[in-house]
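[Protein data]
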Amino acid sequence: MRSILAINVSVFGCALSLSYLLYEYNEHGSAMMKHLLNPDHPIYLFFHILILIAPVGSVIAGYLINERKKILLKSHESEQKLSSMLNEWKATLDSMPYGVMLIDKELNIIRANKYISELSGVPLKDLRSKKCYEVINRNDGTIEGYPIMDSWTATETKTLEYIDKTNNKHFITTITPIKDDEGNITAFSHPLIDITNIKEKEKKLIQSKDAFLNMLKDLNTSHKELKLLYHDLITAFSIAIDAKSPWTLGHSERVTEYSVLIAKEMGLVDGEIGILNTAGLLHDIGKIGTFDMILDKPEELSGFESTLVKQHPLKGEDILRPIHGLEKVLPIIRSHHEKFDGSGYPDGLKGSSIPLLARILCVADSYDAMISNRPYRFALGKDYAISELRKCSGTQFDNNVITAFMNVLGNGGEIVANQTHSNQLSG
């Protein structure tokens, strides 16, 4: 693309130089060059040089003008693209069903979406003049009691729950540092996710759990009836836990059967097998406090969602702790996701520091998970599961437990659990 101004400047310089040369020739004829190079006065020499280089200078000036126009056009196009991208991002942020704020290191709101505006009652254009605690903690508008102050200087994402008393809403909020290329924190991302409905459902589940636990405490039947009822209630509760997600229906019963078969193969006494039986049925009770949308998510879990799921052994221990008689079950519930090499959770226990019954439960739980359908994949099959257990023997799993389980499977011990699995699917 040629600039008209650039062309005119180039033509003007050339025309000016040519016109003067014609004038000189007309005045001095064949002595023109002598007069140009040796004029009557030194000042004319400077003028003649300017005239002679005028074509070159005008062409250069025209080129620069043309390039400037190109740069301006590209800059304008870039500005338009940037403006379009910003509008797209703004529309995306404003359409999100939860709040998002960008906060600087002085707690000033740099950017907030429409959700934050509607939640706080502050127009979008006025949010930039607000401190974040004036919006989030607006009951008194002060920094005291601001829910994220303990996380503000963190170098990694921090997550906590926050109750908005004004709107009677319950939120999960996070603080994530945003760093420049040199690793310096320049701002913080601060989303608010409304979990009010989830909390209400969780509260109802907890109330149901409390009612169930109270019922267990008040049973005054005979020892035999109490033991039978206790087992039936534990079984029913494990079914209720598994029924929280259609993908885990029957999981606890199958894991319990595998665990008991392994324990018998290893020669454990009846008392230990009884403890393992109860632990197997209740090992996932902590998932009562895990959101259904996470358990049933068909895609890979995010870091935050994975952290929530990994809390279920601790939540299970907390739920069962008030019940008299389950003291020996608690460490098994807590440690059934520990790995033999120390890579498990929640405590990173290693080797023999992991309770033996928890090591047995871990193998049974892993096997059933692999041969069962999950929302994010189909069942992997018995052969694959056995191959994985053997491959991870000595690292994730106890060698002795794996050996016992291979003997169980080799002796047809999986038939009982598979029949239970089939009955669960047909039911």
In short: The CA atoms of residues 251 and 310 lie 18 Å apart. Residues 4-93 form one domain.
